[in-house]
Write a structure and sequence with these properties.
Number of domains: 1
Radius of gyration: 16 Å
Number of strands: 8
Strand content: 35-45%
Largest sheet: 6 strands, antiparallel
Order of helices and strands: EHEEEEEEHE
Structural class: alpha+beta
Oligomer: single chain
Helix content: 10-25%
Length: 124
């Protein structure tokens, strides 16, 4: 499942290059490759997806009463990445089928941008 983290700018919006520079400096050695296509930065992270529930496999109940085994949520061993889409008044930090470590990095970058450029965070 994809998760979007939007940062809406309250004042002056940063440019694509500024966001790319901050992304590079934020990820440091975690990023293996970064590409820019139009207004999208794609960062492929070092290593493969992890699954912290694989060996403990808890059963989790959702608020709706459904339950599932978290051990089957992530595709162990796959590539992991973060996409950053830059628009005029916002940035979308997107993860797709991401492990918890990738989501934590995406959340941290979202918070960093919001603090630096006085943005408001919304999640989809």
């Amino acid at each position: 499942m994809a998760q979007d983290r939007f940062v809406y700018w309250e004042g002056d919006a940063p440019g694509v290059a500024e966001i790319g520079a901050m992304l590079d400096d934020y990820l440091g050695g975690f990023a293996v490759r970064r590409t820019l296509q139009n207004c999208r930065h794609t960062v492929v992270l070092v290593g493969q997806q992890s699954n912290p529930h694989r060996r403990v496999g808890p059963i989790v109940e959702t608020p709706g009463g459904d339950s599932f085994n978290l051990g089957s949520v992530w595709d162990d061993g796959g590539e992991r990445w973060i996409e950053v889409f830059v628009d005029d008044d916002n940035v979308d930090v997107l993860t797709r089928m991401a492990d918890p470590a990738t989501c934590a990095l995406a959340d941290g970058f979202t918070q960093l941008m919001a603090r630096r450029w006085k943005g408001r965070i919304e999640r989809d």
